[in-house]
Amino acid sequence: MNIPVRRFDTLILGAGGGGLRAALQLARADAHVAVVSKVFPTRSHTVAAQGGVNAALANVTPDNWHWHMYDTVKGSDYLGDQDAIEYMCRAAAHLVYELEHAGVPFSRLESGRIYQRPFGGQSREFGGAQATRTCAAADRTGHAILHTLYQQNIRARTHFFDEYFAIDLIHDDEGAVLGVLTMDIATGEPLVIEAKTTLIATGGCGQLYRTTTNAHINTGDGMAMALRAGIPLQDMEFFQFHPTGIAGKGMLITEGARGEGGYLVNKDGERFMERYAPNVKDLASRDVVSRAISIEVREGRGCGPNADHVMLKLDHLGSDIVAKRLPGIRDTCKTFMHLDPVDTPIPVFPTAHYAMGGIPTDRFGRVVMPSGDSPEEVIPGLYAAGECACVSVHGANRLGGNSLLDILVFGRAAANDILGFLKNNRYHRPPNQACIDKAYERFARWEKRGDGESVQAVRADLKKAMEDHCGVFRTEKIMQEGIDVIKAIRARIPDVRLQDQSKVFNTARVEALELENLADIAIATMRSAEARQESRGAHSRIDYPDRDDAHWMKHSLYTLQDDSLDYKPVRTKPMSVETFPPKKRVY
Fold first, then answer.
1. Of the candidates 356, 363, 355, the residue with the CA atom closest to the CA atom of residue 574
2. Is 532 assigned a catalytic role?
3. Model pTM?
4. Structural domains of the chain, ranges and CATH numbers in brackets
5. d(CA 433, CA 455)
6. Which listed residue (286, 325, 541, 585) is catalytic?
7. Cis omega (within 30 of 0) on the bond before 44?
8. What is the pLDDT of residues 489-527, one digit of tens each?
9. How many other CB atoms sit within 10 Å of the CB of residue 207?
10. Contact, 383 vs 367, CB < 8 A?
11. In angstroms, rounded to a whole number, what is the distance separating the alpha carbons of residues 351 and 472?
């Protein structure tokens, strides 16, 4: 069919913090920018980030970027690439001040400076006393940042395709990415958007799991598009479980609650984190706290009638602190739990939160993949930033407060590199028509009528399989079973049928396309996890309880087409300082 075409200098997929920070940089440089988002931009998942953004401003305690870098390398369980981590930590203060000048309403100290709170895994003097590094706007920091970036983009005349769903990447005969095939959700009609450069900033894939802090939109669309285009996904075995989701529901209780002085207790009222992290207690890194909670419950010290959670106490902080520093948490508890944390502890349990893995990039945001003898060959014109990308600054475990920093730093870095690319590539290249036809086939096949399974049934089975076989603790037998289960679920997708074949605002078709994306990412996650025979960061193997630097100090790369795994080395050499060598990770 004759599909309409629009052309831009740069196409950005996703209107979260990474996409909007990049768009702003480009629009201010007079590039012709389009942003595609399947929801209205201010509904992107960055809006849900609560605790803050890390930067060594030293507004509360002494601090510097080098200490921040050490904490991030240690937090990553030494799997993070140290050149990218240095780049991020050095840029942090500048990016936060840019946000302040753009209008982000950060909370303030009495001196008028930006308020900072302590967060897990932060230290001074390379592992010394607790640092206070996380810049916060109460407990709605992501909300404040996203709205500010959107308003600045409107001012800069960025072009938005609101409520458009990106289906697949398109490329030319030489493999250069030239945009995407999209669907206008309002009309159900396809649209090709061609661009000289494409930035994937589509966020995470937390909807892989039944219990998650992630919104329904977090279905890993950009990651799956990259997989289908032949690009491997990196480090997908490392999926972070946030230690404090509301038990049984998954809604996030920010780490900032513990940063303000909250603490965890088991059924005996014991502050059990003193046994697992004697120095920093409740402010250990997220993987450590998640495992501690899981062990408490598994060994019979859980709370409630089913002994299936622990309690987070804020009642000792007083109503003034909770109202001023944690108003969103208080609202969430009142709405979903019918309790007030000012006087009642919050039932919490680890919940799927963040993908450390994703589309492999360098620190300039350029997508890279192995080619010949090179472990990192740049794909011309294709970029990725944010949770869908793997730079890798988070390695095996992300520190709280580094996700907002990641999207800002690498959204900006990608935009700067794109501007250089556009200067040397001034004209549009013709796309490969067979590539567009293949993408359209995937879009059109959901018009098949007849009897079949529902999207909801297959998706529910997929999420349960991931929760059962790839959770906080893992074993080879359970994951091998999980791979078989996931493959069987994927095999059912061609038999799924939509009962609603209307075109106008047909969310059933969107959910069907999302299901395909989730299924591809699920197998990437399971295969990568089953192969890594060690425990590192968020990947915790009962059958391999120790970290094995001799054999597993490397990044995994999963390719969909041949269901294969490859590996590449960790970049342990920073840009300008000495390497932080691996050592035992204790808090």
1. 363
2. no
3. 0.95
4. 5-49+64-108+135-238+356-433 (3.50.50.60), 243-352 (3.90.700.10), 448-550 (1.20.58.100)
5. 30
6. 286
7. no
8. 999 999 999 988 899 999 999 999 999 999 999 999 999
9. 24
10. yes
11. 9
